[in-house]
Each structure stands twice: as structure tokens, then as C-alpha cells.
């Protein structure tokens, strides 16, 4: 087996990565809100609003952690990316965001070696993102994703 080298993020790298995570969470809030508002399917709208609220809480917790570490959290809010007229396309966009978060948060958990509070926070957020991705995958599969007709995929 090949030897592996320890990867350890510096304090500045941690703050930079937490700031990127904060921006991504704010983007998720904006996107989930827009996608929920565009959907006429009550169960989808309710689920997206719940995801939006969880992502909003993530953003707040990240901002508080950045401040606790001596950083200044980004203050600007994100604008929703243009929503597609296809529910499946919107859910795929949301899933892509969750996939980014899963990879990023797992890497933070692995590479922060001297800050257990931040590791605990990122572990909690990681588990949430995994659950979100699972729901989005299930919703996409239920829609039949690309196999369905355009009419079935409309909001």
C-alpha cells in the first residue's frame, strides 16, 4: 500500500473554505425558495421549503463559526439562479449543489485536524446534505427524470 501524506488545512484555509460553504448555503436558500415558489405540486413545494429552511440554518451556523474563528462572514445574499420550466431540471440543479456540499464538507471533516468544533459542525452539515441529496434523488427517480415526457416534467 502506498504511503499517504497528512493533509492539514491552515486557519486561513479553513476560513476561506467556510466562507465558500456559506456562500453555497445562501445560494441553496435562494434556489430552493425560487424552485418551491415555481412548483405547483404541493408535496414538492413543501419539501423544497423545508430544505430551504435547513440551508438557512446552515448559513447562520457557518456565519457564527466564521465569526468565532476571527473571520468576517460574507454579508451579501445570493440571488436565485434562473429556474427552468422543468421540475426535473430544477431538482437536478439542486442536487448538483448538494453534491458539491457533500464533497466539500467531507474534505473539511477530513482535513481540519486541530479544530474539533468546526469538524463537529461540518459533520452535522454533511449528514444533512447527504439526506437532502437522497431526497432529491428519490424525487427525480419518481419523476422518471429524463425518461419522462416534457409534459410530465412541467411544474
Report a brief summary of the structure.
The protein has 155 residues and is mainly alpha-helical. The chain has five helices and no strands.
Give the low-confidence spans.
146-155
What's the order of the H and E elements?
Answer: HHHHH
Question: What is the distance, rounded to the nearest whole angstrom, between the alpha carbons of the first and last residues?
Answer: 51 Å
What structural category do the secondary elements indicate? Answer: mainly alpha
Q: What number is the mean pLDDT?
A: 91
Radius of gyration: 17 Å
Q: Could you name the CATH topology?
A: Ferritin
* Main pleated sheet: none
Strand content: under 5%
**Total number of β-strand segments?**
0
CATH architecture: Up-down Bundle
For the record, the count of structural domains works out to 1
- State the name of the first-level CATH class: Mainly Alpha
Shape: globular
User: How helix-rich are the residues, as a percent range?
Assistant: over 70%
CATH superfamily: Ferritin, core subunit, four-helix bundle
Number of helices: 5
Amino acid at each position: 500500500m502506498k504511503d499517504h501524506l497528512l493533509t492539514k488545512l491552515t486557519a486561513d484555509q479553513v476560513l476561506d473554505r467556510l466562507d465558500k460553504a456559506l456562500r453555497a448555503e445562501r445560494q441553496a436558500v435562494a434556489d430552493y425558495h425560487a424552485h418551491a415558489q415555481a412548483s405547483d405540486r404541493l408535496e414538492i413545494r413543501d419539501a423544497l421549503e423545508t430544505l430551504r429552511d435547513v440551508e438557512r440554518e446552515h448559513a447562520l451556523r457557518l456565519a457564527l463559526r466564521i465569526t468565532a474563528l476571527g473571520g468576517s462572514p460574507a454579508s451579501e445574499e445570493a440571488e436565485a439562479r434562473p429556474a427552468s420550466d422543468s421540475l426535473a431540471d430544477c431538482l437536478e440543479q439542486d442536487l448538483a449543489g448538494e453534491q458539491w456540499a457533500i464533497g466539500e464538507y467531507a474534505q473539511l471533516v477530513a482535513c481540519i485536524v486541530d479544530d474539533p468544533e468546526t469538524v463537529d459542525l461540518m459533520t452535522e452539515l454533511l449528514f444533512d446534505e447527504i439526506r437532502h441529496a437522497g431526497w432529491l434523488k428519490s424525487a427525480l427517480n419518481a419523476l422518471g427524470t429524463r425518461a419522462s415526457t416534457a409534459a410530465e416534467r412541467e411544474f
